[in-house]
Amino acid sequence: MGHARTFWMASRRACEAGGTLLMRMEDLDPDRSRAVYAQAALEDLRWLGIRWQEGPDLGGPFAPYEQSRRRAVYLSLWRELLRRGSIYPCRCSRRDLAGAVSAPHEGGSPAGRGSVESNPLDDEPVYPRTCRRLQDKIPETLSSLGLDIDSPDGINWRFRVPDGEAVEFVDTNLGPQSFVAGVDFGDFVVWRRDGVPSYQLACVADDAAMAITEVVRGADLLKSTSRQVLLYRALGLKPPAWYHCDLVVDKSGRRLAKRHDALSIHALRQRGLTPEEVLSAQATSPIDTSKSFC
What's the CA dihedral at 74, 77, 82, 84 to 10 degrees? Predict the structure, then answer.
């Protein structure tokens, strides 16, 4: 429900701005992504009355719109980050990287606003800088492991953040935001040793390549935006605007999680709810579903 409601907001903002709504499948994680889930998501969103102009089912000028088919785009940015000295190989365990591919759904404390609930299971912990020393020994490190300097596969790669710097941006919905690098988040993963790029790198690569002017997503991803601001800066790219939606919550005020199967769009459709009733679900801020789409 939360994802659907966020996409509804994206559709409203694109409509009101006279822009283009883009549907992109962020299906990088092979363990969690299935074609049947993607198809079900498209069907649920159409049932809600949302219409997009570009996507995996429609095509468009920036196809393909499935991240699992865009590896060449991510490799290009990885190579550029390596050339600019922004990343380094990391030999730490797989446990350190848990959740690096999936959208982290993190919490934060927006300036001047109430706090946003965090999800500690999905929040990448602050990295203790264990492998930073390898940044000046990249060829030697890869050679000792029998790895190729032209490929990121076989070892983890992290982005070196500017410790102590406040990364600031203005959110269109929640106002000014600020997170301190090295305190609120540390050196973050941009590529996993199993050959999968991270959520942070893939989103920056795709938003830049697809000429995205505004990203609409949940408020639990505010900290991810700070990471992505640093990636944009390191790559010399212009970042988009961001609009972080208030979260859909349950009766106790807690964020709905995917484990709430009874509140999936499919389940609500089977119970006979209308699209209007689903979109008017409880959230920290109500939305007006009475407006017709463009």
Answer: -170
